Amino acid sequence: MRGPMGDFVRRALSWGIVLVLLLPILLTVVSGLAALLAALGDEGGARLCWRAVLLAAVVWLLAVVATSVLAGLAALAAERGGRRCGPPSRHRQRHDSRRPGRRRRDGGWPSTHGESSGDGSGDDGPPPRHDPRPG
Q1: Among residues of the chain, what percentage have pLDDT more than 90?
Q2: Is residue 58 part of a domain?
Q3: How many helices and strands (H and E) does the chain possess?
Q4: Number of domains within the chain
Q5: Does 33 map to a domain?
Q6: Would you state the pLDDT for residue 132?
Q7: Residue 28 within any structural domain of the chain
C-alpha cells in the first residue's frame, strides 16, 4: 500500500503487534498485584486492580482482532497492487547453484602440475591428496 492510507495501515499494524505482545505481560503483573493487595487486606486496591485487569483484557482482545483485520487488509492490498506476499525478488532462489557474485577465475581446480588445463570446462578435478605415510 502506498500513500496516506498505506502509512496508516502500516502504523496501526505495528501498534497492534506491540499491544498484542505487551498487554499479556501487563495483565499478569497487575493481576498479581491485585492478588497481593487482596491477601494483605486492601479490598479497595484489589478491586481497582481487578478492574484495570478487566479493562486491559478487553483492550488486548480488541488489539488481536484489529491486528488480524489490518494484516488481512495489507495482504489484500499487496496482492491487488501486483505484489505477492513473500520474499522480495532479491531474496528469491537463483537458478544456478553458485552464490551470487562468486565466479571462477581459472578453469577449475589446479592440476597436479600446478596449472589448470585451461579449457574452461572445470573438469580438472580436486587437488591431489598427499599420503601421510612415509615411503
Answers
A1: 41
A2: yes
A3: 2, 0
A4: 1
A5: yes
A6: 74
A7: yes
pTM of the prediction? 0.54
Report which residue type is found at 3: G
Grid coordinates given for 35: 492478588
Q: Sort 1 into a burial class: Cβ within 10 Å, 0-12 / 13-18 / 19+.
A: middle
> Which residues fall within 8 angstroms of residue 19, CB to CB, at 6 or more apart?
59, 60, 63, 67
Q: How high is the pLDDT of residue 41?
A: 93
Exposure of 27 in the CB half-sphere (CA atoms within 13 A): 14
Cell numbers found for residue 133:
605415510
Task: Map residue 88 onto helix, strand or coil.
Answer: coil
| Nearby residues of 42 by Cβ (< 8 Å), 6 or more positions away | none
CA atoms within a 13 Å half-sphere pointing along the CA-CB vector of 7: 2
Classify the C-alpha dihedral 76-78-79-80 as positive or negative: positive
Domain range for 49 is 11-79
In a domain, 120, yes or no: no
